[in-house]
Amino acid sequence: MVRALIGLLMLLMALPVFADKRDLYVGVLGNWGYQQAIERWSPLMQYLSEQVPGTQFHVYPGEFEELNRAMASGKIQFIVTNPGQYLFLSNQYPLSWLATMRSRRHNGATSAIGSAIIVRADSDYRTLYDLKGKSIVASGPHALGGYQATVGLMQKRGMDPQHFFKQIKFLGFPLDPLLYQVRDGNVDAAITPLCTLEDMVAKGVINEKDFRVLNPSRPAGFDCQCSTKLYPNWSFAVIEGVDTQITKQVTQALMGISAEHPAAIKAQFMGWTSPVSQLGVIQLFSELQVESSKPNYWSVILGWLGENRYWGVFAILLFVVATIYHLWIEYRFHQKSESLVESERQLKRQEVALEKLQSTAIIGEIGAGLAHEINQPIAAITSYSEGAKMRLQRQQQLDIPDILLLLDKIHSQSKRAGEVVHRIRSLLKRREAVMEDVNILTLVDESLSLLKLELEQRDIQIKTHFKGEPFFITGDRVGLLQVLINLIKNSVDALSDAEFKGKGMIEIGMHFKAEQVDLSIKDNGPGLSEEFATLLATFYTTKANGLGLGLAICQEVVNEHEGVLLLANNTDERGCKAQISLKKRGSQSPVVA
């Protein structure tokens, strides 16, 4: 009986302790949905409740705006979020960092937030510049890894994020729909937090081969591709007003949790460390929030005149005198220039007459050039049409897709022949080449596509690679395509020579430098038999059926682009190497061979 009374007394004494437990709520970002956030962070809440007597911690999942409102209304006392939202909230509420999370996935790294810019693998987008005027999706405008890191990257490269894209859609959380939109072709690209692609591939909801990451990099110790620099990881913060003793106990509990604790495994961290520096995020935010305020020059001038009235009167008089003198000089110049204008008109008429004589003199050369250039597309059309005819003769039932593919190739070659004719006509009429933004990577793909059948027939292997960050050049797309096809065709002809024995291979490399791009075409054929200067001479050829115009035309087109064309034998191996060096778009520096 005595023992029962003692037990009952102890139970009655413990009841107030349980009754007085304080409920504390921790806001967490629900990147993959609220239910997933609750499952991920609930074990840590239970751990904190055990470590801090008299408290019961709860998960409060939400998106950025929901967590902002929850903090404003006092519904949450703690928050686990990225540094971007912390800096945004700290400008409105008194927050303090307690600890920074060490990522389990990235070997305990404390900087594990960045963006991955993802496109379809079969798209033509290879650089961030290719997305100009395109539609993209992101999780939200305040997402550090889901949007703001990419905006910072764009500003460093001189892009205007507000006007660069055609449309930006913010889909919020969860993150899955971002890649579904890209996969289904509804948008051109998605800006996602680091490891979103890899996580969805691991869950089996998408195929990794369907996607490609732009501006890819893989930091040491990471198994995910990233497009931007990395920023500090998620941190645990507390709002002012929470009891200091509780805050101290929470900090000690976070620092003391081991990497093998079930709560750490479930929440995907290896532990917590002292808050890391947020300087990188602060610099990013300051760059994003800089507003270019133009000064009111008129107010500045009036203020200066008010403070320096005498000098102001003198400046106005000087301006009036200078204006009168300028008008007098203009009048005298107009009187003297009439005779000069008439002389210029006569010189212009003589120049036009001389131009006509020169055009007449080179008609023969242009005609030969037309025959040389148009021979390639005509030969390709003949080959495709013969192939179609043979397939029709062999098959009783038509293979419509194959026939349509051959017709598309014939149509492409006919358009190419037309472009050559127009280019020769523009040369005869002395018209300027059409200069526009040109993607060298796409141009190489088009050249190989036009020569695909011939390369397959002659069993020639093609290798392409590039070094550096790709960029656009300003050039005549048709002319440059003509140059690439000529140089690749020269390598094909060399590998098809009767004296060449072995497996033919052509290697196309692109080296993107600071102010120029060097494009090289190497083959393992017999090499050059003459000097480069000799081969450039018009009507000089080493081929039995050649006209001697291919390299001369290539040299002329490259010169129009202020570039450099070189041709030489490989020094360390057999074969020949042709190299074209062209300026980067907007560059004023001369090309260095």
UniProtKB/TrEMBL annotation:
<dbReference type="InterPro" id="IPR036890">
    <property type="entry name" value="HATPase_C_sf"/>
</dbReference>
<keyword id="KW-0418">Kinase</keyword>
<dbReference type="Pfam" id="PF00512">
    <property type="entry name" value="HisKA"/>
</dbReference>
<dbReference type="Pfam" id="PF02518">
    <property type="entry name" value="HATPase_c"/>
</dbReference>
<dbReference type="InterPro" id="IPR003661">
    <property type="entry name" value="HisK_dim/P_dom"/>
</dbReference>
<keyword id="KW-0808">Transferase</keyword>
<dbReference type="Pfam" id="PF12974">
    <property type="entry name" value="Phosphonate-bd"/>
</dbReference>
<keyword id="KW-0812">Transmembrane</keyword>
<dbReference type="InterPro" id="IPR003594">
    <property type="entry name" value="HATPase_dom"/>
</dbReference>
<feature type="domain" description="Histidine kinase">
    <location>
        <begin position="369"/>
        <end position="586"/>
    </location>
</feature>
<feature type="transmembrane region" description="Helical">
    <location>
        <begin position="310"/>
        <end position="329"/>
    </location>
</feature>
<keyword id="KW-1133">Transmembrane helix</keyword>
<protein>
    <recommendedName>
        <fullName>histidine kinase</fullName>
        <ecNumber>2.7.13.3</ecNumber>
    </recommendedName>
</protein>
<dbReference type="GO" id="GO:0000155">
    <property type="term" value="F:phosphorelay sensor kinase activity"/>
</dbReference>
<keyword id="KW-0067">ATP-binding</keyword>
<dbReference type="InterPro" id="IPR004358">
    <property type="entry name" value="Sig_transdc_His_kin-like_C"/>
</dbReference>
<keyword id="KW-0472">Membrane</keyword>
<dbReference type="InterPro" id="IPR036097">
    <property type="entry name" value="HisK_dim/P_sf"/>
</dbReference>
<dbReference type="GO" id="GO:0005524">
    <property type="term" value="F:ATP binding"/>
</dbReference>
<keyword id="KW-0902">Two-component regulatory system</keyword>
<keyword id="KW-0547">Nucleotide-binding</keyword>
<dbReference type="InterPro" id="IPR005467">
    <property type="entry name" value="His_kinase_dom"/>
</dbReference>
<keyword id="KW-0597">Phosphoprotein</keyword>
